[in-house]
Design goal:
about 180 residues, alpha/beta, Rossmann fold, two-stranded antiparallel ribbon, 8 helices, about 40% helix
């Protein structure tokens, strides 16, 4: 018991260590602002233009993907971004509808079978709210049963251009998107 008392008394008599935070280690905001605004090539804004063989500068194409399976949407996003597109994804069709802005996207990739609102209804709502927007669309599905409904709802759209069947290879997805955007 004597040893325990000694241990306690030694702990109580040792000086306490005071930790001071030294923020001088981190660069100031003005220093960081100078770096960001400098002409250093790595600090410049991202260039979203592409040069074609004709030396014509065009903006990157913007795509909105709406699929309730977030893993699939992320996979499509990564693949299409690797191929030079700018991609936004949503896994809730109502959120996608509320955030949609006319003229913001060149192509919509819409899953058909989603909870709360299917892809056909989402596209119909986008067209009804933004009638002057002529955004292109591709519907994505794993089910054959939607072919007839697609033909009834959108008779002016070509099925071959606007229908993507799951599963699809990422290279085939990119080719389909490029073909639809031309």
């Amino acid at each position: 018991m004597y040893a325990c008392i000694t241990c306690v008394s030694e702990i109580q008599t040792k000086p306490k260590i005071k930790v001071l935070q030294d923020w001088s280690f981190f660069p100031s905001y003005s220093y960081m602002d100078n770096i960001i605004n400098s002409s250093h090539p790595e600090s410049q804004r991202i260039n979203t233009s592409l040069s074609s063989n004709n030396n014509i500068i065009t903006e990157k194409k913007r795509i909105m993907i709406v699929d309730d399976e977030l893993d699939i949407a992320n996979l499509y996003k990564l693949s299409l971004e690797r191929d030079g597109f700018l991609v936004d994804i949503f896994n809730d069709p109502l959120l996608a509808l509320s955030r949609y802005k006319a003229g913001a996207y060149d192509l919509l990739l819409l899953d058909i079978n989603m909870p709360r609102m299917n892809g056909f209804k989402l596209y119909h709502e986008i067209l009804s709210h933004h009638s002057n927007d002529h955004v292109k669309v591709c519907f994505i599905t794993a089910f054959e049963e939607y072919n007839n409904q697609f033909k009834e709802l959108f008779p002016a759209l070509e099925e071959a251009d606007c229908f993507i069947r799951k599963p699809i290879a990422l290279k085939a997805l990119s080719e389909k998107v490029k073909s639809r955007l031309q």
